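Hypothesis: this fold can be encoded by more than one sequence.
Test: take the structure tokens below, design a sequence, compare later.
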């Protein structure tokens, strides 16, 4: 008898009975032999004479008859005799009865293992979960484990990723961070997801200097990790050297140091992320980068013409540059679709001002232009989106961007339509003045351009 368990595309011999001769059983591909056929088909096989069965691949020349029974999706149980016609249908039924009990036991064992695993592991990252980490903190909070170092980590820019690319991309970042932590830490370190975008690492019998080396490895490995944005983790560490120190206070201090690190990295990290997002948008939609530059230049001209201050002009230029950043959340197949959009696709496209608003709001240096992005598709008469506001309720930056954005789209080839002349675009703007566009700003733009 032999018991073969499926591992990948192989059936591995895990156990044999005492009567099996030396080298009398071997692992094989699930695509070969009687065991492979039984496993693939899920059907038992009663073989009277192995040498009359083209599927058989006997390991020993003296093997003659066989019973081969699949064990659900776990593997195969096989009984072999050295005599022809040595097994009856009753023997097959007994083997199947034995296997059914075996399969039930294996299922129960696997289920129990899975339940235990899920009870102590984070489903997304595979790291330990907070429940397990809290138990380990209690267990390791002993004099024998001193010095006990704690590292607290927090992923930079995750909210921005979730807003720009959706939570699936955010989850990918969390998985990559988990991989970075596993690659950077030592075998004896205990790594867990503390919650949301926070991670906690317990380093038993570890001096602070050694823990800081672990932090340096984490940061270096993160820098070398590719994702939709640069992977960046804020980290803080504290070490418990005295048994009388409260472990909760130690963790809190590590969290405070992490927060300090986050504050130092946040501004540069967010700016870098925004630049990456703009570059990504340019790659997704052929004319986007050039379109944004043209819109920025024309918006600046209007802002100068109406006598705005230098700071207001800069604000409008920045809003014009980023006005389409919310398109990052729209699938490429919709952005590059040549025919008419379906109603569902159009409704999705109309979400891009709000997505752009959330992206801008998530970075301090862009928060002041967020409303300019949010309202650049509002109409003067209140029939625009996403809020349906009208007239001068619409921010000035949005009203300016609305005009120059429409003009640039009309005068340059799009996937869904050919460009029109400047004069035709001018006439369209004037026809829509007081309906879609601020009439006074349209006059200023037309007079300036023509």
């Amino acid at each position: 008898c032999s018991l073969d368990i499926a591992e990948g595309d192989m059936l591995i011999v895990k156990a044999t009975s005492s009567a099996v001769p030396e080298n009398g059983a071997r692992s094989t591909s699930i695509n070969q032999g009687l065991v492979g056929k039984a496993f693939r088909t899920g059907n038992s096989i009663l073989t009277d004479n192995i040498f009359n069965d083209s599927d058989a691949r006997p390991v020993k020349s003296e093997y003659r008859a066989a019973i081969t029974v699949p064990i659900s999706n776990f593997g195969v149980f096989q009984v072999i005799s050295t005599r022809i016609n040595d097994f009856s249908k009753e023997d097959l039924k007994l083997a199947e009865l034995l296997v059914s009990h075996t399969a039930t036991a294996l299922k129960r064992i696997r289920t129990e293992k899975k339940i235990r695993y899920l009870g102590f592991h984070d489903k997304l990252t595979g790291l330990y979960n907070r429940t397990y980490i809290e138990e380990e903190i209690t267990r390791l909070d002993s004099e024998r484990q001193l010095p006990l170092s704690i590292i607290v980590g927090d992923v930079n820019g995750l909210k921005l990723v979730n807003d720009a690319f959706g939570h699936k991309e955010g989850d990918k970042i969390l998985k990559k961070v988990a991989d970075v932590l596993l690659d950077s830490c030592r075998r004896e370190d205990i790594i867990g997801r503390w919650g949301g975008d926070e991670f906690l690492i317990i380093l038993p019998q570890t001096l602070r200097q050694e823990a800081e080396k672990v932090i340096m490895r984490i940061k270096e490995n993160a820098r070398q990790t590719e994702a939709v944005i640069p992977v960046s983790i804020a980290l803080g560490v504290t070490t418990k050297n005295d048994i009388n120190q409260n472990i909760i206070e130690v963790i809190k201090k590590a969290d405070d140091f992490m927060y300090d690190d986050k504050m130092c990295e946040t501004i540069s990290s967010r700016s870098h992320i925004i630049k990456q997002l703009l570059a990504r948008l340019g790659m997704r939609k052929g004319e986007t980068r050039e379109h944004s530059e043209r819109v920025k230049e024309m918006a600046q001209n209007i802002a100068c013409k109406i006598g705005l201050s230098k700071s207001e002009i800069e604000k409008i230029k920045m809003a014009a540059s980023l006005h389409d950043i919310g398109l990052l959340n729209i699938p490429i197949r919709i952005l590059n679709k040549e025919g008419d959009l379906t109603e569902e696709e159009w409704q999705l496209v109309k979400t891009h001002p709000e997505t752009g608003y959330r992206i801008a709001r998530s970075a301090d240096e862009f928060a002041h232009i967020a409303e300019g992005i949010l309202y650049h598709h509002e109409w003067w008469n209140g029939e625009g989106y996403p809020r349906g506001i009208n007239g001068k309720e619409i921010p000035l930056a949005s009203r300016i961007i609305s005009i120059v954005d429409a003009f640039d789209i009309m005068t340059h080839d799009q996937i869904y339509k050919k460009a029109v002349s400047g004069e035709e675009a001018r006439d369209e703007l004037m026809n829509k003045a007081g309906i879609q566009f601020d009439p006074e700003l349209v006059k200023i733009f037309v007079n300036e351009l023509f």
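Residues 247-284 form the longest helix (38 residues). The chain has 16 helices and ten strands.
Hypothesis status: open.
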